[in-house]
Amino acid sequence: MTAFYHLPGLFEFYEFYRQFLPLYLHHRDWFYNWCEIGSIYGAPSDCLWAGGRVEESGTDPQKVLTLTRQYGISARLTFSNALLQEEHLSDHRCNALSRLFHKPGNGIIITSDLLLSYMTKEYPDFYYVSSTTKVLTEFEALKKELDRKEFLYVVPDFRLNKAFSRLAALSQTEKNKVEFLCNECCWIGCKDRKRCYEAVSFRNLGEDAHPGEDYSAFHCNAPEAEKGYRFFAAMKNPAFISIEGIQQIYLPMGFSNFKIEGRGLGSALLLEFILYYMTKPEYQIAVREELYLDNTLDLF
Q: If pLDDT is split at 50, 70 and 90, which confidence band does 57 have?
């Protein structure tokens, strides 16, 4: 069975992928033969419909689309803003971006049912992914989401990653739709995760663009939050999905889709994720050198 990785930073890490994808294609033997790139996801800067994280990128969307089409990779637009109102649906830039990427094989990661209804009517050729920003921490809520025919994939909250007995009981059709978030660093006891995502949505809309609650003062109170993302810390998270876990537990159980977090963390960390999850140990130095020695990449 093949593991499909869904990688971050479609726009933010364009220069990285411009160097990495030909390396991946021409040196496929450097990477595990049991895994492939399922998609690359993200949204450009100042994208009103975006959510989850904020990408800092002014990369020309046409260049991004051309790159993904060249290598046959699914491009997913991260339209996971949770606070959208009817008036936001007419946003010119987001609709122009949707028209550009509206190609067979491309997808939309989405939170708002309002936006989902609009998108499925206006852009029927996309496939749709239920975003982890919905924070589906209850297994029954996940089951209901998996039953929704609008979604090709559903990303549950990372705290369901180890609910093995209930995950094993899913049908194969349901398992095919589950996409696990592997490398989350967030405190597993966090009670504010949904509000955290809403605060990002609020910032993307602008303080005057949402008439509801003011999220401008939101502050993460998780232990050691001030340290930011650390991959080593993520590996110690009880919900972390290791490469051994993918090979020995998830694939044999019938799951094949795995999402890698990484937007906003920098291309150096993205490289570490790719080395860990996709690259054979004996070739990790070779991959590092191929990318480090290209001085067009901002790896630090």
A: low
| The two structure tokens encoding residue 174 | 């349901």
Q: Which domain range does residue 266 map to?
A: 3-292
* Residue at token pair 């990002």: 200
In angstroms, the CA 109 to CA 79 distance is 6
Q: Report if residue 273 sits inside a domain.
A: yes
Whether residue 99 lies inside any domain: the answer is: yes
Domain with residue 284: its CATH number is: 3.20.20
Weakest-pLDDT range from 93-97, 121-125, 150-154, 215-219: 215-219
Q: pLDDT, tens digit, for every residue of 11-40?
A: 999 999 999 999 999 999 999 999 999 999
Whether the pLDDT of residue 300 is over 50: the answer is no
Question: CB neighbours (10 Å) of residue 263?
Answer: 22
Give, as one character, the DSSP assignment of residue 72.
T
Instruction: Give this prediction's pTM.
Output: 0.91
* Residue 224 in tokens: 């050691």
DSSP characters for 14-70?
Answer: HHHHHHHHHHHHHTGGGB-TTEEEEEEEE--TT-TT--SS-------HHHHHHHHHH
d(CA 154, CA 257): 10
Q: Is residue 300 part of a domain?
A: no
279 contacts 30 by C-beta, under 8 angstroms: yes
Q: Domains in the chain: how many in total?
A: 1
**Element housing 168 (H / E):** helix 164-168
Token digits for 244?
């051994």
